[in-house]
Automatic annotation (TrEMBL):
This is DNA integrity scanning protein DisA. It is an enzyme of class 2 (transferase). Keywords: ATP-binding, DNA damage, DNA repair, DNA-binding, Magnesium, Nucleotide-binding, Nucleotidyltransferase, Transferase. It comes from Neobacillus rhizophilus. Homooctamer. Residues 8-146 form the DAC domain.
């Protein structure tokens, strides 16, 4: 059964619900600082109802200061499923004691058992150990200090920058090979594998950002600044080397990102994503369509790029075309044809300089 139908929150929902900047997190942090300890259940389903004993019905909107005040009392506080209402305070919870628990204190044992028995999200705030622990089903997670996550996220940003520069170097090499008409399948697969490393770090960063909530704003900005243009360039590479035009680069990117979270991607899988279903000899030459290089020519509209590729079939033919040949393409006059030729020359010069940097 999926999480939504069972009323169970997904791990991402949970982390977002209690991320810094949210009212619940503010309330939890207040209770932690006040050293009263707390036991909070989010979700009042039938299974929770069956194990609640006593307590006061509160039924008011959630506010961080109410949570803090109510936590001064013994027992558990019960919120509704979305966490925006406080339903009951001072409740005794009586979960099945046959359910195994690895915790020692009563608050934490109760939290673990209630979570396993009811599937609701249960939060224990320890009075003695200054830690907030989340339980849901068999999932247990001790919230990390924001400073620790921020340090890890900053390290990930530095790693992302390093991987980006390695990737850019291989994109430069690919461009040179494209101008020299000597790209093999291996060459563009190497670029995709380097991109895979970038996506791995991106995934790691996204995990940190979920936990950081509003505290992760700057990290998110940095990540987007590093990745936006790079991802666009990578999608153009995918478009250039896809088996046919049915392949959607943004979908390939999404699928690569999902796959990188569970391991590395084989050449064959990458080729499948790009639409190659039959056997491919990796040392064979493969001519790109030319979308990426043509996009580097200033003020060349997308429709003209399409016309060029439709007319000439691939980048090598476009590079070898004379001004007169280019002039014959719909939408291209003599001036634009000269600009395209000039554009290619400038790109090529810049590439050779970059290669020697
Ligand atoms: N079954 C329960 N239902 C509701 N509240 C409970 C239950 N068990 C424990 N508590 C609450 O937890 C409080 C502390 O219990 P205990 O010291 O045994 O827990 P603990 O897990 O060691 O937590 P801490 O680290 O905060 O001391 C109790 O005073 C009570 O308010």
């Amino acid at each position: 059964m999926d999480n939504k139908r069972s009323g169970e929150l997904s791990i991402h929902d949970v982390v977002q619900l209690i991320a810094p900047g949210t009212p619940i997190r503010e309330g939890l942090d207040n209770v932690l600082r006040a050293n009263t300890g707390g036991l909070i259940v989010i979700g009042y389903n039938e299974k929770v109802k069956a194990i609640v004993d006593g307590g006061f019905e509160i039924n008011c909107s959630f506010s961080p200061s109410f949570l803090y005040e109510l936590a001064k009392m013994d027992g558990a506080i019960i919120l509704n499923e979305t966490g925006n209402k406080i339903l009951i305070a001072n409740a005794q919870l009586a979960p099945d004691t046959d359910i195994a628990s690895t915790e020692t204190g009563m608050r934490h044992r109760t939290a673990e058992r209630v979570a396993k028995q009811t599937k609701a999200l249960v939060i224990a705030i320890s009075q003695r150990r200054n830690v907030i622990t989340l339980y849901q089903g068999n999932f247990r997670y001790a919230l990390k200090d924001i400073a620790v996550i921020l340090t890890k996220a900053n390290q990930a940003i530095q790693t992302l920058e390093k991987y980006k520069s390695v990737l850019e170097q291989s994109i430069t090499n690919l461009s040179i090979l494209e101008f020299e008409d000597s790209v093999t399948y291996n060459d563009f697969l190497l670029v995709l594998h380097r991109f895979e490393m970038v996506l791995k770090i991106k995934n790691e960063l996204l995990g940190f950002l979920y936990e950081l909530g509003t505290e992760g704003r700057l990290i998110r900005l940095q990540m987007n600044e590093i990745l936006t243009e790079l991802e666009e360039e990578m999608m153009l590479i995918m478009k250039d080397y896809a088996f046919n035009r049915d392949v959607k680069p943004n979908e390939v990117l999404q699928r690569m990102q999902t796959m990188t979270s569970s391991g590395t991607i084989d050449d064959i899988v990458l080729l499948r994503l790009l639409g190659y279903l039959g056997y491919v000899h990796l040392d064979e030459y493969r001519n790109p369509c030319g979308y990426r290089i043509l996009n580097k020519i200033p003020r060349l509209p997308a429709v003209i790029i399409e016309n060029l590729i439709n007319n000439f079939g691939n980048l090598t033919n476009i590079l070898n075309a004379t001004v007169e040949d280019l002039d014959d393409v719909e939408g291209i006059g003599e001036i634009r044809a000269n600009k395209i030729k000039e554009g290619f020359k400038l790109i090529r010069e810049r590439l050779y300089t970059d290669r020697h940097l």
